[in-house]
Structures
1.
Amino acid sequence: MPTVPLLSDADAHPVASAVFEDIRRTRQVADVNNFWKALANSPPLLQHVWERAKEVMQPGALDALTKELIYIAVSTANSCEYCIHSHTAAARAKGMTSEQYAELQAVIALASTTNALATSMQVPVDQSFNVIS
Amino acid sequence: MPTVPLLSDADAHPVASAVFEDIRRTRQVADVNNFWKALANSPPLLQHVWERAKEVMQPGALDALTKELIYIAVSTANSCEYCIHSHTAAARAKGMTSEQYAELQAVIALASTTNALATSMQVPVDQSFNVIS
Amino acid sequence: MPTVPLLSDADAHPVASAVFEDIRRTRQVADVNNFWKALANSPPLLQHVWERAKEVMQPGALDALTKELIYIAVSTANSCEYCIHSHTAAARAKGMTSEQYAELQAVIALASTTNALATSMQVPVDQSFNVIS
Amino acid sequence: MPTVPLLSDADAHPVASAVFEDIRRTRQVADVNNFWKALANSPPLLQHVWERAKEVMQPGALDALTKELIYIAVSTANSCEYCIHSHTAAARAKGMTSEQYAELQAVIALASTTNALATSMQVPVDQSFNVIS
Amino acid sequence: MPTVPLLSDADAHPVASAVFEDIRRTRQVADVNNFWKALANSPPLLQHVWERAKEVMQPGALDALTKELIYIAVSTANSCEYCIHSHTAAARAKGMTSEQYAELQAVIALASTTNALATSMQVPVDQSFNVIS
Amino acid sequence: MPTVPLLSDADAHPVASAVFEDIRRTRQVADVNNFWKALANSPPLLQHVWERAKEVMQPGALDALTKELIYIAVSTANSCEYCIHSHTAAARAKGMTSEQYAELQAVIALASTTNALATSMQVPVDQSFNVIS
């Protein structure tokens, strides 16, 4: 259960409703996801997050699928159930194959292990990693 | 300061020394990084992690640079200073451009924000994310 | 499902039952929440946590609502579903308005973003932040 | 050491330099902090984060000091060394007393404890926390 | 709901099926847990994790129950619902008493509190903790 | 650098000074660690944490060394540099061998990996883990 009501067009502030409309048009979907319906309780926050997501997730120096894989990685490390589901679905929609998903999981698993080991031993950073001359 | 001594070939168990040699040969480097020198205090763990890293990080369904970006994302979410440095250096060595790095950071930043929002409102997962028919 | 049975007065140790009674009296509620019923499996731990909560959450240099907002912030960053729900409910009971809740979320979202960015770039701490002369 | 060079006006892109100027003017400071100098490696990200920080952290339904306390709480739970220092300094600059700081720490400490306990026992959320009728 | 189908012997790759068989034989159980059925979507990852779990969790310098307690502690700090449940059940199966469980929780709770306090105050590490002469 | 001054007997409140004395006597040490000197800025918090640590960490259903191993595990997952160092030193002082430390690290590493995998696939909890009949 959410801590706020999930708002639909009927209940939402006009600012939120306009964002809903932009999401449906941009993504070519019949309805917006629960995340946006929950965020609609704060129209300015909804507007900010949607504008930001639209800008950041578009293809650029990194392609759209790579960005989704990074999103899944962060969401997993942060234990965000909703985000893991929404971005795994998004990655599939953008063409993620089973092989790519399996390799993503293998990298997340390895990173989680070496993160724990480097942290538990407090390994000092090598000078060779220094990018600043 | 580390919680264990950083071992060199002179101090390390022959099993660890053989792993060091394999790392130097595989990566074409003069010396192994501190992470491996610290892990050498447990030769079986060193051997396991190195074998796993060699296998997981090679190009496959995902290319080597994409894997490094995912590694940085996980390491950032887990606040692992050493791993952030070592894998940012590795990503640069594998050709990460400034533009790619900036976009990686933008995705990590956005994911961190929406993770926090979805978690704080405990947004229920949409049925449409369900992959199981 | 919990990893321990949720105990009621009928099942609980007299020490736990006395804590239940104090919670009901202090908070003027008919029944204690599931958290306390679960903790009752270890009466000394129940007693300790309840005494601590009573002392820490009372108004002092910070008012009771501000303390609840801080509690929600920590619980969100730690992904504690139960605590997010219980302390969001508590904050509402102490008068948190929709506007305050929206601003709380905006600050949590911003902090999560800048935490990730400062960590990913390992920004060195400014000397000007030093409180020790 | 940072993963990127810390840029000053002399090295920064004009867009970044304009943000630096706005930060100095808005905060009435002689120089910007390292966080902004690091972010300047991606002028659009710098601009976005600064605009967002300016908007979110201004007094509203929550006062400026309360927002800093929430920021410290999130940064602590996320182990962000830089952010803990910068926002503890900011909170002091906005009038945080020693008594308030001690109570903030006590709430963070208590929340961390009960987060761990509720999570370890996987306590089911009480129906009474439900805000949706 | 999972992000992948849970595979049984009927659906799984022969490599995965062989791992299932080894799990059933080693643990003397009629069926494998959902974790393995989900991992079976990537047979090499399933094989790797199972081999590693078999090796790491066997009694050695630390007994099998102590290893489960450590596992619960990590899983709690990482908010992994599945792992908390599976390893609390495993610890009980290996003889964890109610008294031991209560003390485990008390240590996890205390560590969570002091972790937060040491981090919030950024306490400098004592030289006396240095293991390297 | 810490966010608060590290207090010695000369600077500390009498309540804090009495706690310092109890720590030195109980642990048979010449001086208290930095954690306590930092906490002394809030004498009631110092007193509370010390009393709690004394009670929780004493041998009971779990022996003192096992408790330290659990403490290291939690501190690692929470990325608490200070706590990792202080409790690794404490574990060594209580007799932790190199073999035990290596196995502790192997369990933490494995748990971190399976936590990430179970979370990334959102594996549903098996009914067989249910402790409540």
Note: The interface with chain C takes residues 1-5, 48, 52, 125, 129-132 of chain F (CB under 8 Å).
2.
Amino acid sequence: MTTDSTESRVLAAIDERRSRINDALDEELPLQHPERLYEASRYLLQAGGKRLRPTVTLVAGEALADVAPDSTDYRSFPTLNGAEVDLMRAAVALEVIQSFTLIHDDIMDDDDLRRGVPSVHNEYDTSTAILAGDTLYSSAFEIMADTGGEPANALAAMRLLSSTCTKICEGQALDIAFESRSDLLPDEYLEMVELKTAVLYGASAAVPAELLGADEAVVEAMYQYGIESGQAFQIQDDVLDLTVPSETLGKQRGSDLVEDKETLITLHARQQGVDVDGLIEAKSVDEVTEAEIDDAVAALEDAGSIDYAREKAEALAQQGKDRLDVLPDNEARDLLKAIADYLIDRGY
Amino acid sequence: MTTDSTESRVLAAIDERRSRINDALDEELPLQHPERLYEASRYLLQAGGKRLRPTVTLVAGEALADVAPDSTDYRSFPTLNGAEVDLMRAAVALEVIQSFTLIHDDIMDDDDLRRGVPSVHNEYDTSTAILAGDTLYSSAFEIMADTGGEPANALAAMRLLSSTCTKICEGQALDIAFESRSDLLPDEYLEMVELKTAVLYGASAAVPAELLGADEAVVEAMYQYGIESGQAFQIQDDVLDLTVPSETLGKQRGSDLVEDKETLITLHARQQGVDVDGLIEAKSVDEVTEAEIDDAVAALEDAGSIDYAREKAEALAQQGKDRLDVLPDNEARDLLKAIADYLIDRGY
């Protein structure tokens, strides 16, 4: 279990790097001709975001290179064989990919808001949003292509980035397909979460290992750390949707249930014989009452489904942390472990 | 000027390679889980297409390696320093990128048909089409990442592919923006054509130069060959829209004029004082008459605008062909020159 100090430590680590990440985003993705396209491409990136994935990339680099957190110029970062790479470009590329996926997902899901502002297709139009996402997509590869260092390592990072993007598309396709499936299995849900959400954490942790020239076993361990932390994050997100008060969540508690979204919790409950479809009568978050949500959550608690999901998230986060034993024992490694804890125990 | 034998020679060269390109597309982009996503991703590729860009890649490789056309296994193709690369994967990657751009363009332009079949967003739905395009996008990078050979050369090819994709997005953004511009300049139009259409021909010719380890000057010459041939192709396409009978075109002759699409021809005519907006009264291709088109074409001919565009296309094709003088004098080089001729003198 994490403590308040773990959370504040992780948030401090993110804060310390955020302005440099933001500056680098601005440098690597300048507002250029044609202006409207780049304005739309930069719009969501400028609307905010924790920069969690690029932070993982930077801290993973520090853990691998065995340097103290925040001690080293990310633009000329030491590799394991004494060369230098621009680790910041890699971090930026991962955030740019994340932004691309959000823009296209918002079109597909017809979500009006993102990070408290209108989504890109809403602020501009669908064509511009498709094109802004496409521009970010190839820009991320352009940025990643020029980190310097050994070409073989850069090529490996490019290969990992491309396979990661393909998996994210597969995960989004499964997520859409699952909306019309009534016979979903927990393992199918976990596969979807791995592909849609977790692989980008995996890439965020494994790309620095590729660039720094780490052994294949270390690359794989870093990737699995990201995968398992990312899965834990998503499962815990489903738990928090039911257990955190609406005012803290910033949206209606239980909205997944109201909107018939399957999660590991509902899939477990179905297996326990709970009539999940009958838990909520209300057809929208506007008409649901807190009392109705309370009853539904109580039924899911009685079935052990919320504990099941919470324990699954904790087990995955622990697995992820254990992967890091391949790294030197240093402060940055501890910070990566704290990030895994933070992903499941964050205050919302 | 080309002759019938040039055209038939180019078509024969395309025919000779098409089934192998198609087999490789099927191998590198198999129908896999999740099936519906990959079915949608493969749908347009399976609907046909000349495979002109991958043919350019393969023939450019033959010209660079100085081997006889069609004499060498593309899967283990000789580089300039005696190693081997999988040139077919590079060719496939370029066709996959082309297919991605068509799928997303058809969504943006709301085009119902492509290659005689419903466009992907029409056959499936918009979300699936966005995702199918996104899947092809990263798949192309995955395919390009594993051509073998020198990592530095593969990385250079990846870098070229990514900057090419960014430029294609910029070109599409300009094309959309130009629809609401009444003060477009010919140079702006040429820039749009370069970005939207020509750079992918440039990459098709230059990627093999990168992979085979050619000098930077040769890479640049091949790229310019593709750019200039590709621009010539698009300008000639605008000419053919006015000069080829509707039954041969397979669509209404003069449709660009009816739909108020600016081309190099209309932009030249405007500069000559022609009232381009008044040339056609009809508001759609359904109501326009051949006589009205004839009169409009006559006015554009009188202004010298059609000859201007035709000569521009011919000059660009010639420039492109001249770039190939950096290559060894061989049969494949002649074929690349014939392809440039074919692009502007093809029967429709």
Note: The longest strand of chain A covers residues 77-78.
3.
Amino acid sequence: MCEASAYLIKDGKETLVLESVDILEPLDESGFMLKNIFGDQKIIKARILRMELVSHKILFSEDTP
Amino acid sequence: MCEASAYLIKDGKETLVLESVDILEPLDESGFMLKNIFGDQKIIKARILRMELVSHKILFSEDTP
């Protein structure tokens, strides 16, 4: 399977937000809805920092660019 | 491998932008840098509409939300 884990980078530290993410959709208010292959859903108020799909990683940041 | 193909949705039509995308990074000016597993790189001026990782799809839209 080709899902990825979503991490939040804050103060230089990486925290797992949701593993095995399948669906990612932007929300109106500068956030994202994440849904994983187990049906778990999470909303994250952060911006995308970088995605590394081959490494199965989605990195978010709460900091402004 | 778990790369995904990037498509641009415009006027209801899906156009392939870049296949086998590994890295995705937002740019300052509301766009994204895409880099695939072959080292090809592309800049797309669009917003993310939806990602479906298990289906290996990244969908972009040029339309405003």
Note: Chain A touches chain B at residues 1-4, 21-26, 28, 37, 47-54, 56, 65 (CB under 8 Å).
